[in-house]
Structure formats: structure tokens, C-alpha cells
Automatic annotation (TrEMBL):
It is an enzyme of class 4 (lyase). Belongs to the TrpB family. InterPro entries: Trp_synth_b_CS, Trp_synth_beta, Trp_synth_beta/beta-like, TrpB-like_PALP, TrpB-like_PALP_sf. Pathway: Amino-acid biosynthesis; L-tryptophan biosynthesis; L-tryptophan from chorismate: step 5/5. Residues 62-384 form the Tryptophan synthase beta chain-like PALP domain. This is Tryptophan synthase beta chain. Its EC number is 4.2.1.20. GO terms for cellular component: cytoplasm. CDD domains: Trp-synth_B. PROSITE patterns: TRP_SYNTHASE_BETA (PS00168).
Amino acid sequence: MQQKPYLKEYPNAEGFFGKFGGSFVPDAVKKAMDEINVAYDLIAQNSDFITELRKIRKHFQGRPTPIYFAHNLTKKYGGAGIYLKREDLNHTGAHKLNHCMGEALLAKFMGKKKLIAETGAGQHGVAIATAAAYFGLECEIHMGEVDIAKEHPNVIRMKILGAKVIPVSFGAKTLKEAVDSAFEAYLQDLDNSIYAIGSVVGPHPFPKMVRDFQAIIGVESREQFLEMTGELPDIVTACVGGGSNAMGIFSGFIDDCVELVGIEPLGLGSKLGQHAASLSYGSEGVMHGFNSIILKDSNGEPAPVYSVASGLDYPSVGPEHAYLNAIKRTKVATISDKEAIDAFFELSKNEGIIPAIESSHAVAYALKIAPELKGKKILVNLSGRGDKDIDFIVEKYGYGE
Ligand SMILES: *Cc1c(COP(=O)(O)O)cnc(C)c1O
């Protein structure tokens, strides 16, 4: 795949973006990661693999997804033009399938039989289960019992798709324990399976691989935006949980003179425990096998985090974001629960698009800055659709009058 100069150079051979990234895992896992890395380097140059992935993007996922000019919101806010990259129209309703199909195709090329993954809200679980069904692979999804109770529709989807959902009943019974459990299962079955990580996080080569699979968003966006407007956008923005949808769209503009802004969830406020804005309030540390910026408690352990968007509440962030932020190539801003909910209803009522509550954070940022930026153009990565959120939102916030 043809890559921009920056993308070729980062990460280095050991998976470092500056001092961030790397691979801090037990030797057995390191060996498995090295095998994945070698296989990935091979297939990334292999025309069969590239052709197959292109076919999948077009005929199964429904790519390219369009860019849409949000004409009503642009008019209403009276400043910058607001454009949306419609990842919500990707099959399964979010960007996650972009890397899940890539990871599953890699598993197939490596002769693996099984995909193992953890899931929090169930979005990654559904995307992996979809990819497993497509490729005829076994699929095992580890999920905390608390999340299983909360995210019932996604549990049903995974089971319909043929995945085995493993309830995790220790600790807080949520995402962190699901990661520990999935990791344990993977260790027991390194030869047969692949641990399909759900964002640009984890040990090398996952942050690089997932970015490369998501880069399709950036490649399409750059081309479409030029075709549509004759120019590049002034600002590109995306929400950041682990950071995969943001890295996907940012990578298309990384060597251009375009401002890139990652949006972190401020939740209920700036006190530790009220938010999940890792880059904004965290410090350097290793978690889940990579060095990055982490929200820590007073003992230096990963702190409890919160956001109304369960896809964004992770106490660390992809190492590439930590690096790009440190060298000031990207900027970070925060958006609160309330601002995100308001944006959710603004986009729904003014444009007829119900966004995921995660994506609503990026929309909120665009609405916040647009009035002051007349003559400029803002491109928002609309990472997913909001169907999964509507019951919760209506129960808690009504219909947004
Ligand atoms: C999972 C998810 C996110 C957050 O993940 P990133 O890796 O930060 O992109 C954002 N939006 C949607 C719709 C999601 O499902």
C-alpha cells in the first residue's frame, strides 16, 4: 500500500513513536506478536491480500463512505463549513469493521482458526463477530458480567453472528477484567488464535496495524474533500477513546498543512474519576503492553474513568496520539457529557443523522468553534451511528426539546 512519508517512518521497527509504544509483554506473547508483525509486513506488500481487502471494503462493508456537507448546521451556526465523513454508514454502523476485517484477513493468511477479543460496550465484539462469520473463523468474546447486563442487544447480536460470549465474573466485571480474561485465553492458545485488539493500542504491531487498516478513512476523505471543494479542510477532528477512528482520518492529512484535533471525553468534570481525558490530564506510563499517557490514581495505578460514551472511557490512549500530541502535530480538546448530548440532538434534528454518542463529542467540538471561523472548513469524522444509544439517551435526557 502506498504510504505518506510520515506513515512510512513511524513507528520504528520496535514499534516506537518517539518514546511511546513498544511492546511490554511476557516472552511468550512477545514471540506471538513478532510472528504477527512479520506476517503483517509480508501481507501488506502482497497483492492478493491488498486485492482481497479492497474487494471486502467495496462489496461487503459498503465503502467508500461519503462525505456530507452539513448545510443546515453550517447555516445555523453561521461560521465555518461543517463536513462529516460518514463512517456511520459503514457496515455494522461504525468505523470498527475497518480494522476488524483487516485483522481477520491477517488471521486467515496466518492459518489461524480463532479470533479472541474483549469487548466493553460490545461494539468491538460485534465487529469481530461479523468478521469471524465472514471468514468462517471461530470467535470468542470476553465480556464483563456488568457489561453483559447493560449491553444486552450487542450480546444478542454477537450470539446471532455465531460468537461465543464468555462472561467475566471477577473484579469489577467490566472492560479491564475482560482484557485480562481474553489475554489469559489467548496465552492458552497462541498457535491457533489471534487476539484481535480493538483500537490503536496494545503491544507492537497493533497500534501500527490498526492505524494502517483505519487509514482508508483518511485516504478516502482527502480525495473526496478535494473533489468536493477543490481544497483541503482547515481542521480535521475526531473523538479519541483508544484513538483508532482519529488515527484513521488524521493519517490522510498528516503530511499536509491541516490542523488535527482529537476530542477527549470530559464526562462530568475535570476531577480524576469524572472523565476519561487521558492526553489532557494524564502522565507517562505502561499499561496493557505499551508506553503511553495514562490517567493514574495516587498510587500510580490506572485510575477509574468515566464518560457517557462507553467507547471512550479508557484510562490510556494509543501511543501514536501520545507522540503526535507531544510534538504538537495534533491538538487535544475536551467535550463534556452535556455538550456531547446537545450535539447528538443538534445533528439529529437539523440534519437527520443520529450519531453515536462517541462521535457526538467531535460534532460538539465543531459546533463550538464554527461560529468564530467564517470562511474555514471543518471535517468531522462521524465514527458511528447512534442506534445503540437511543434507549439510554431518551430515558436519561428525553427527546431533546
Ligand atoms: C469504539 C468507538 C469509538 C472509540 O474508539 P477509537 O478507537 O477511539 O476510535 C468511537 N466511536 C465509535 C462509534 C465507537 O464504536
